[in-house]
Amino acid sequence: MSKFNLVAATLFTSTLGLSIATGMSAAHASSLVPQQEGEVKLTNVGCIVNAPNCIDTHSTLGYTVTSKPYDYDGKAPQYGLSRLFVDNSATANDWVGISFPQVDAGTNPPSNQYWFRPVAYLGEKAESLPTGTPAENSNLEVGQFKFVFDHTISELKLNFLDVEDKNFSGILKLNGAVINNLLPAGLNNSIQSLTLKNVDSFVVQLGKTGPDSVFTNTGDGVDLQISKVPEPTNTVGLVALIFGILGLRRNKKVTSVA
Question: Which of 244, 158, 139, 155 has the alpha carbon at shortest distance from 203?
Fold first, then answer.
């Protein structure tokens, strides 16, 4: 084989390996947001929607979600526990009086994507169950939730949509330990991301209610996406295997020419 052909083959192999590595990473990055609209079945709050639209994340994706109390500032109005929904902004929905229009009053994710969408409720105390009419006609996306996984996840990526109040939305606990990894204020409908490693559980705060919010009359609503990042060893191993196969083929051709 000539030097030119050998260099060309090497470049082709390297390019192919890089393409496959990139493709495998994309292929194995799996969303942990259910790919259907409806209400998430919480461990401590029953669904108000019918059974087909009450999403059991434990049986399908291997994790549970618990609604946590968050409003302890002693200022009116008082908010209780929140509900959690999965929403796709490409469609408008009405879930037993909880209305999600295609265009929201303030928080609008990219179309044709599934996002966790909290729904805040007023309550007598922070631990009050979410009953009655949701706050702000279902348009206040605020809540605190604990995610617990059946198995340790090596790496998670969390996307936060429309964080406009600084140092409030973000990760409060990881595997039971307080970390308070909070996000800065961003632009309207912008996306900020956090990465967690070796995850058994985490507690996340989404949004902030008034009157201390930058939006004193409504509060700052925030949506969430979660995805499992592929383990690099899987991708590297596959690429190494492909390099090996291509190398054997090249050596075979060189031997044949000789």
Answer: 158
Alpha-carbon span 147 to 170, nearest angstrom: 13
Could you tell me the two tokens for 88?
Answer: 């796709």
What pTM does this model have?
0.81
CA 185 to CA 165: how far, in whole Å? 5
The whole-angstrom separation of Cα 197 and Cα 218 is: 34
Predicted pLDDT of residue 8: 40
Task: Tell me the C-alpha distance between 211 and 79, whole Å.
Answer: 12
* DSSP letters for 157-176: EEEEE---STTTSEEEEETT
Tokens 């083929």: give the residue: 249
- Count how many residues are written for the chain: 258
Alpha carbon distance 176, 181 (integer Å) = 14
Phi-psi region of 216 (alpha: psi -120 to 50; beta: other; left: phi over 0): alpha
Q: How many CB atoms lie within 10 A of CB 244?
A: 10
Q: Chunk the chain into consecutive blocks of 10 residues (it has 258) and report each block's average pLDDT, rounded to whole numbers.
A: 43 38 51 98 98 97 99 95 96 91 75 95 98 93 99 98 98 99 97 98 97 91 97 55 49 50
**How many Cβ atoms from other residues are within 10 Å of residue 192's Cβ?**
18
Side chain identity, residue 168: F
- Of 193, 194, 203, 87, the closest CA to residue 149 belongs to 203
Report how far residue 245's alpha carbon sits from residue 237's, in angstroms, rounded to the nearest whole number: 12
Residue 161's nearest CA partner among 193, 139, 135 is 193
For the chain, which residues make up each domain, given as ranges? 3-25+235-257, 31-229
DSSP letter at 38 equals E
